[in-house]
Amino acid sequence: MRKKIRFKRNFTILFLMIITLFAFYNYYNQYKVMKHLDEQVETLNGEIHSEKEKQVELKTKQDYYNSDDYIEDQAREKFGLVGEDETIFIIEE
């Protein structure tokens, strides 16, 4: 009778130890997965920040290209045009 009780007690302890080890094993695996996912989130947040900066830069360029200043600059550079209030000086060498 004592052996039976001792066997049940030992079996219960062994069973609880196995369950505990299984729980810790699962916790450790989930921790590794979470850490990997956190690293991916940080990487993606960095990429998002970089892309937002590019977007702001492109928007600024687009606004400049749509402005009268850009059109005037291009007319001066490509066609040699001048404004109404401007005087042209030609320097001979």
Description:
The chain has two helices and no strands. It is mainly α and 93 residues long. The chain has a domain of 65 residues. The model has no long low-confidence stretch (mean pLDDT 91).
Q: Would you spell out the secondary-structure blueprint of this structure?
A:
Elements: H1 2-65, H2 68-79
Summary, kept brief:
The protein is mainly alpha-helical and 93 residues long. It contains 2 helices and no strands.
Can you write the helix and strand succession as a string?
HH
Most strands sheet: none
How many strand units?
Answer: 0
> How would you describe the shape?
rod-shaped
Q: What value does the Rg take, in angstroms?
A: 37 Å
Helix fraction by DSSP (H/I, runs of at least 4)? over 70%
Mean pLDDT score, rounded? 91
Distance between the termini: 121 Å
Q: Count up the helices.
A: 2
- Weakly predicted, low-confidence segments: none
How is the quaternary structure best described?
Answer: single chain
Structural class: mainly alpha
Please state roughly what percent of the residues sit in beta strands, choosing from under 5%, 5-15%, 15-25%, 25-35%, 35-45% or over 45%.
under 5%
Quick tags:
2 helices; single chain; rod-shaped; 93 residues; mainly alpha
